[in-house]
Amino acid sequence: MTKLLDQLFYDLLQRFRFLRDELARITIAEPDIAAYRDRLLTQIERSIETVQSLIEDLDHMQPEFARNMYHACKRLTEYAQLADEGPVSTLSRFQPRDRFLTRLVAAMCDEFNFPHAKPLCSAITTQYYCILPRMDLILVPHSEPDHLLGLPDVYHELGHLLFRDTAVLIEKLRACAQKHFQDEIVRAERKAWPAASIDALRAYSLRWSESWVVEFGCDLLATYVCGPAFGWTNTRLCARLSPEFFETTASHPSDAARTIAIRFMLQNQGYLKEARQIDLQWEALQQTSGQTEPQVFRLAFPNDLLAGIVTVVVEYCKSVGILAFDRYSMPVAALLNDAWERFVEAPSIFREWEAAQILTLYQRYDN
Amino acid sequence: MSDISALSSDYEANSQFAETLNTAVLSLKKFLRGGPGQSHTDALAGIVAAIRTQLTSATLERSVPSEVVERLSTEHKSDFNYLIEDLEAAETALRGKAPIDHRVIVVLDTICDAADASASAMFRRLRRH
């Protein structure tokens, strides 16, 4: 067993050393990008120390420690692979458009007082917008830095970073969902609902607690700080990629429910006209796609619960100093809202205006 | 927005839980062998108690990742009641009310295995999605 672990740990140690040397070798002129690289380098150096210390432990290891050592090795190996595939790979191929995107996202973060280190961003993924929270790395498709309509989705990904740091908001959202379903289950039992319906309530409750609160939380945070533009982007994303608006998965609530929650947040923030416009767009999308609301939908996503989580997010943001969208003090978020207003008004001539705005953004954030 | 973001977050929760638990169990084993360090018995008792609660009641508490609890439940379908008894006995011992013997370590190893398997499975899903 010791021989096997010896091999695994030395293999891992060599991999970490390679990643460290690779990172140190990359020439980065920009202080903000170099700061990210240095943070990662520190983490990798710590991992090297951990592996070295575990190798020393192997010399006087008791047989009963072996499996724990093996588990420790696996977690460290996963970290090495994540670092390799994510930030090391990104930094070694870093392009001007990545730098621009990283700085644009940093400006977004500053505008709403994002309480977390600013992430590195790269325009290279096949997975639409996504984030590797442990690596502070946001990935977007190649063409996104040259377009405005999808960029509000960055705010959603920033939510995942926020939730990695603090469980407070997620716990509050969970408590809100749990209270709702506990009350509903009691009510259903009193009214002698069929067992299958009560089981369904329990199943929804579990999914809300396990994962749906995170997605709702990210959407509502994004709407709070980015305003109506996030609502428009959400509708666009659903139109382009949603297989079924009312379908739920273990990790994601239905797109329809998310859209309602976003509308409630917009209404809460006073964007009544915009919320109505987005709602009309959503209705048109449902009609065009021929999708109708299934009976159980309101059981899983009742309006009072969706309104409740909006209140929780607003109160949380206010309590920690996260700023609500303000057209006059948030130029990037304001631009994204302007973009959507112009696009909705005249989609055929939008690109010309958008290209000019992108050029200006590049001049401001990539020099 | 993509499943990758949600999966990454889930992986991170499972990975952190597995790492924290494994480190504490290893530390306890070393401590029991007369080695240096801390026993972490209070923290481990809390984890064992939380798993028992999540396994036995309709609680919505989620301090232990649900994947770990589900895995334990599935793997111990045939001896579920024994598992609950063992968890109870392990918690009692870790709270200092009984000696920490081999059976307690077996229970902790069982949880470590489930946590490791959950983290590994998620990491795999993250790249083969």
Helix/strand structural class of chain A? mainly alpha
Mean pLDDT of chain A: 94
Query: Mind telling me the C-alpha Rg of chain B?
Result: 15 Å
Number of helices of chain B: 5
How would you characterize the largest beta sheet of chain A? 3 strands, mixed
- Write down the secondary-structure element order of chain A: HHHHEEEHHHHHHHHHH
Average pLDDT of chain B, rounded to a whole number, is: 89
Shape of chain A: globular
How far apart, in Å, are the first and last alpha carbons of chain A?
55 Å
Q: Uncertain regions of chain B: pLDDT < 50 for 5+ in a row? A: none
Beta strand % of chain A: under 5%
Question: What best-fitting shape of chain B do the alpha-carbon axes yield?
Answer: globular
Q: What is the rounded distance between the termini of chain B?
A: 15 Å
Structural class by secondary-structure content of chain B: mainly alpha
Describe the structure concisely for a colleague:
The complex is a heterodimer of chains A (367) and B (129). Chain A is mainly α and 367 residues long.
Structure description:
Chain A is mainly alpha-helical and 367 residues long. Chain A folds into two domains: 2-89; 161-365, no CATH class. In chain A, 72% of the residues lie in helices and 2% in strands. Chain A contains 14 helices and three strands. Chain A has a three-stranded mixed sheet, with helices on both faces. In chain A, strand 2 (130-132) and strand 3 form a beta hairpin. Chain B has 129 residues and is mostly helical. Chain B has a single domain, classed as Four Helix Bundle (Hemerythrin (Met), subunit A) (Up-down Bundle). Chain B contains five helices and no strands. Chain B has helices at residues 3-32, 41-56, 66-75, 80-94, 102-128. In chain B, helix 1 (3-32) runs antiparallel to helix 5. The longest helix of chain B has 30 residues, at 3-32. The model of chain B has no long low-confidence stretch (mean pLDDT 89). The A-B interface holds A 62, 64-65, 67-69, 71-72, 74-75, 78, 85, 127-134, 153, 156-157, 160, 163-164, 174, 178, 181-182, 202, 205-206, 209-211, 214-215, 237, 249, 251-252 and B 1-10, 12, 15, 18-19, 22-23, 25-26, 29-30, 33, 58, 60, 62, 66, 105, 109, 112-113, 116, 119-120, 123, 127.
